[in-house]
């Protein structure tokens, strides 16, 4: 995971910036108008010294009265107002288009993340994706709206300003230019080192975001195991690394700024001495000398800001590279070029010579699934049993194509699942995992997330039925009933309650194939039994493949498949396997029957004794 984003940075500045071109195309005119406004503002600023020149050489000469002086002052004031107006205009032109591009890019980033296969998400830390979706895009927008325009305007201002200075006095111009050459060389070297350090800091910030996200998610585990201080130490270490990088970044920027400030000042100092000598020798008029220094003052600002703007451009390059690293990631699980239509599925599922290995599995290791041959008849419930880590979840994840088989074929009603569109396949197949994810939404929205329309049933009926089958009717007794907000930002539910809501979600989808990856693990045996029985009667025509960790679930299945060393080594009814297969007996003996979901006991009244016992225990302990 940690290595996914540390790819080699081979792109040049211009190839990276060039990748923004298609995004900028629709807003190119507002950007050009913004650029022209900023440029006009700079030109106006450069005209002011020329007014000074005229003023000094004419209006300020003895005996010329005050009229010229007032006119000159009015012109300078007018130019100042015009410059301010043009700067405001630049902002007006670019703000809306740039934020529109940012929003559009963020939306397509999110869409791309949604489409990428699970294999991609396994490799990438969530913080990395979060920082790319938020801060990198925000930075790109600021660079488009300000940095890029100002870099062009600043460069042009320096070029025009220096040319004007040369036209006034080539000797003084040369002195000023003598300072600009080292700045250019230094700027180039700075550009290389700053790019590297800025990339490092953005990656470190992403890793830090991942650390925060993981500890917030795992706060219960950290607290329960008293690992808070260790997590804090590790976080503080990472934060200090980022701080060191940021300090390094700021220091190199400070050195650059110092050089670009100091050199022009030195040039101006020696230019002043030289200028006075030129005036006293009659080779330069006083007006030109004043105008030269006024122009130098205008140009000094852009020269100083070239460092930060260059740095901003390099950071923008890094942000663009980071953005496109994700956008360039190829989706490995895609729709076929000419999909087979399968409007309604019977639900026959066949694994034929299926092999699977994870992309990062070492070459010497055998495939997790090493030639699976298994057929589920339409409508049957099959339990998948095997020792822990033997590949049960992996096998299940192939059915909705969370991963694709690496060899062999997986067929639904005789059609290779890769021949179906993903949306069609996922309409026919619904999944519930042990590790449930509920969204920050109402119970109703969570359950009806992928609900299919059912003839004669309103969404309310579908919801009620799904909750009833999943033994999750407790939802009606929540503070706002099924409209109660649950999930990360809502009401906290117990593990068993969460699992039952997630199961109701899979049931409401009314799939042809239901894939259940130990989704009842947090339920007590009695609730689990009731759920399984209701599932069997309500979803009579649904093919169900269920990873079972308890003999009670296994015994309710029509048939059981035994997964061993990457293969299905036995298929039969529970009693057949129990009688004939010693590995099956071994696996079953290791499964647990202990009730885990106390609250479902309490909800149904079955756990009163247990509750009393616990209450008594509490009192005794108090
Ligand atoms: N995303 C992944 N990337 C690489 N290897 C993985 C990944 N997920 C699982 N594995 C490996 O594949 C093997 C099978 O894992 P799987 O989760 O399918 O087992 P399981 O039978 O469901 O286990 P359990 O009963 O404990 O849930 C394990 O060795 C596991 O380490």
Automatic annotation (TrEMBL):
<feature type="domain" description="ABC transporter">
    <location>
        <begin position="349"/>
        <end position="590"/>
    </location>
</feature>
<protein>
    <submittedName>
        <fullName>ABC transporter ATP-binding protein</fullName>
    </submittedName>
</protein>
<feature type="transmembrane region" description="Helical">
    <location>
        <begin position="68"/>
        <end position="89"/>
    </location>
</feature>
<keyword id="KW-0067">ATP-binding</keyword>
<feature type="transmembrane region" description="Helical">
    <location>
        <begin position="286"/>
        <end position="303"/>
    </location>
</feature>
<dbReference type="GO" id="GO:0005524">
    <property type="term" value="F:ATP binding"/>
</dbReference>
<feature type="transmembrane region" description="Helical">
    <location>
        <begin position="253"/>
        <end position="280"/>
    </location>
</feature>
<dbReference type="InterPro" id="IPR003593">
    <property type="entry name" value="AAA+_ATPase"/>
</dbReference>
<feature type="transmembrane region" description="Helical">
    <location>
        <begin position="143"/>
        <end position="166"/>
    </location>
</feature>
<keyword id="KW-0472">Membrane</keyword>
<keyword id="KW-1133">Transmembrane helix</keyword>
<dbReference type="InterPro" id="IPR003439">
    <property type="entry name" value="ABC_transporter-like_ATP-bd"/>
</dbReference>
<dbReference type="InterPro" id="IPR011527">
    <property type="entry name" value="ABC1_TM_dom"/>
</dbReference>
<keyword id="KW-0547">Nucleotide-binding</keyword>
<dbReference type="InterPro" id="IPR027417">
    <property type="entry name" value="P-loop_NTPase"/>
</dbReference>
<dbReference type="InterPro" id="IPR039421">
    <property type="entry name" value="Type_1_exporter"/>
</dbReference>
<feature type="transmembrane region" description="Helical">
    <location>
        <begin position="172"/>
        <end position="192"/>
    </location>
</feature>
<dbReference type="Pfam" id="PF00005">
    <property type="entry name" value="ABC_tran"/>
</dbReference>
<feature type="domain" description="ABC transmembrane type-1">
    <location>
        <begin position="32"/>
        <end position="315"/>
    </location>
</feature>
<feature type="transmembrane region" description="Helical">
    <location>
        <begin position="27"/>
        <end position="48"/>
    </location>
</feature>
<dbReference type="InterPro" id="IPR036640">
    <property type="entry name" value="ABC1_TM_sf"/>
</dbReference>
<dbReference type="InterPro" id="IPR017871">
    <property type="entry name" value="ABC_transporter-like_CS"/>
</dbReference>
<keyword id="KW-0812">Transmembrane</keyword>
<dbReference type="Pfam" id="PF00664">
    <property type="entry name" value="ABC_membrane"/>
</dbReference>
